[in-house]
Write the structure tokens for this entry.
Amino acid sequence: MNLTAVLTLLDQAEQDLATGFRTAAEGHAEEPDIHDICHNLAAQCEGRRVALAPLRERYGSTDTGGAADRLGTRVLSEARPGPLGLLRDLQDLYVQAAFAELTWDLLQQAGAALHDRDMLAVSQRCAREASIQQGWLRTRSKQAAPQTLVLAR
Amino acid sequence: MVDRIADIWGTRTPHAKGTRWPVRVDTALAEGVSEGDVEKWVQSACTLCSNGCGCDIAVADGRMVGVRGRAVDTVNHGRLGPKGLFGSWQGMGRRRQNRGDRLTRPLIREGGTLVETDWGTAMTRIVDRSRTLLEERGPLSHGFYTSGQLFLEEYYTLAVIGKAGIGTPHMDGNTRLCTATSAAAMKESFGSDGQPGSYEDIDWCEAMFLWGHNMAETQTVLWMRVLDRLHGPDRPALVCVDPRRTAVAREADVHLALRNGTNQALVNGILREIVHRGWVDEDYVAAHTCGLEDLVATVEPWTPERTAEVCDVPADDVRRAAEIFGTSDRVLSTVLEGFYQSHQATAAACGVNNLHLLRGMIGKPGGGILQMNGQPTAQNTRECGADGDMPAFRNWDNPRHIAELARLWDVDPLKIPSWSPPTHAMQIFRYAEQGSIGLLWISATNPAVSMPDSGRIRRILASDELFVVVQDLYENETTEFADVVLPAAGWGEKQGTFTNVNRTVHLSEKAVDPPGEARSDLDIFLDYARRMDFRDRSGRPLPPWSTPEEAFDAWRDCTRGRLCDYTGLSYDQLRGGSGVPWPCNDEAPDGTVRLYSDGVFPTASEAAETYGHDLLTGAAVSAADYAALAPDGRALLKGADYVPSPEEPDDEYPLRYTTGRTVYQFHTRTRTGRAPQLQAAAPTMWIELAAEDAHSLGVSEGDRVRVVSRRGHIVAAARIAGGRPGVVFAPFHYGARGPDADQPPSSDEPTAANELTRTQWDPVSKQPLFKFAAVRVERLGSGDGPAPAPTTTASAPVDPAAVPPTRGRGGVVVREDIAPVEPPKAASEELS
């Protein structure tokens, strides 16, 4: 079942996203809202990994060595400096959060197909949470964009 | 003669539920001035808190010599509080002294120092810099930081200049510090800013909840109204949520003295009880709200026990408070800074809205919500768009709303900055810090003292790259950093209107001439606009008006058909009688006492002021997602889980720090500090410790202590008071400069409360959060007597014998006339 590979992938994606949020939090600590909210969002990612753990236990989590293993997103391990750096970091996080959100959405479908109510409930909640994270990244990027793109030096 | 310093709330006039609050006319006159000496009484309303008490200014020899409450006014029924009685008119004084005198001529910076100049030179300097920046870097180089103290006409003028003349999204008011959460919570729950309730609800209620609201000190006249019910024949139950032992707490049936920073846990706990014990008004919720299922799931983990553990209050008190809320027929809530400036501010304020919605307790006599304001004209800053909002509660994210404004102002819609969320105050200062804002125009506010982490704010203002314009009554900590200082006329020296917490609009007339060359803020803004030659698409000057009344009439047009409809109001209508609550239009020619009596809310996509946000993160809801939600007139039940604050106490900083007001001072004491009676009652900085903490630190009353946070430290005398253990309180009024020349110079040690506060803000309302930070306290040595804190308030000493009681002093004679006339009747009010 390819599901096991996707579960592993999702765990990795959430871990990377959490790392990315922490990187942004500390790298842009001069922006107090970024610092506080990104730490909260990182904690949410860790919470989703905890929610994922029983599913990984139930369905196994061995790597297949196949195409599913190659996580296409990049972990944000070092923050870029300055206003444009912030905007670029938020963009990167957005891509990662989108990957997580979509994968949780796919798990919902798998849960339905498997008649696994736990998987359905967990993936529904987590997809929504990841979607709000995306929403925040979009909101904050749009807030920063005009000043950054037009004026920031 | 009464001593209204010692007796803050004056003589009681108790009355029964559903009857009109008796009149008591409070008058203050300078010693030696009799009523016969008063040449004229000039109509106004008080601007020393957000209550908006109608008053008349006494004038003799071209000077303000006293003040009297207006018996006909539905807000105060003749009463005034100590700040109004002593501070309103004396605070505008212009007696010569070494420093702290009124600004009478413009100042410009020459070779590093501020020197007097004429208006032409000062304005030319501003306009030159403004033009250069606009040409070289565009409108986003300009920021405006205004106040909650100006008049409606001035805010609207500033909004049009900023949004249509320049086209900058960088406009905000210090209302961001005091009422942004109030507005945000109403937008999230009801679709729009706009106060649901009315002060008349106090006359009707059977239970009152004061959420983080020390009303006894912050809105003394409103508290008189509450006291007259509490001392009347059918006393309403009172629940107080506040870590300090305030005068409100002392009157309360239930005092939830929670850990500061845990409001959201408490609100969730009470919501859960309402749900579990069957107190939800199912019919109302089904017909008039959406989001119940999610809210119930969010609050489900918050059992009374878990709530009690997080908040550190007894579980039975949580149950008891919920029972009062769930079983009383008419429940009134008021909410203020204990929620607005604390962790999860908007979420917790929405939680109060949720409680009322679950019980269908909104828009009915005695059953309502007052999301309070901190400042007298804050409502206008918000309505008029002098802060981040669009005028008349329009949605920046709704192109049709922007098109309406463009038509109204006759400008290109693209000129109006609606391409991103409006910039909040903290972000404006951040852009200034980064150098992308090159001109910052500050009017009627003192950010060098009032903003969090004030050391950082001073560094930003001091930057050579930033051109700072400050427009104020007096020199203050902020004018020290200005490139140009403009002397402004203030209360009683200019004409205009303003709107209080319960939407009541008052006209404030000009009583005396401003000192020297000082000008009204309206005239200053218009002078700038003319010199900049802002024009609309037809080539007419923008804004086209030149007097306050013309500005008011233009504002009426802007509000037509909106929730805050002013079309039925005029200067003439506001003269002579009571203030009038909006909406006031053809359908409601006498105004409207309370909103949402029909359970229909402005949440339809076309009407809403916002599409809303996630309360935990502030993520914006898109127009499409909002349309899919289809609230269509139903209120939104929005919840959020509790999360611990980002700075919880630890071994190094084991105590919880919070800041606030004392009854005798307002803000940074610009006016109250110049009233000798108020200044003597609360002259200098103190630090309030709980008795248990003082004991373990070895601190006695009056000892000098240092309070240290990760940002800095302050030094002051300690008051041992009756607050909850683990909490340190500091009043925020005391900056580096004293407004009173009598005052001994403060020591070299910093005293301002905001030296310690963390730069942080609520994710939705963007309100800075002053009500939680981790600190430690160190004893430095003994002081010279008790701390200079009042004994009549929340700062009362635990040992009354240790401190002489706070008393008034001469100079002003105050009189109370009980029930000289029948009480006024509010518009569309059914009180007997």
In short: Residues 740-745 of chain B have pLDDT under 50 and may be disordered. Chain B has four domains: 1-91+813-832, 117-178+377-562, 180-372, 655-798. Chain B is about 30% helix and 15% strand.
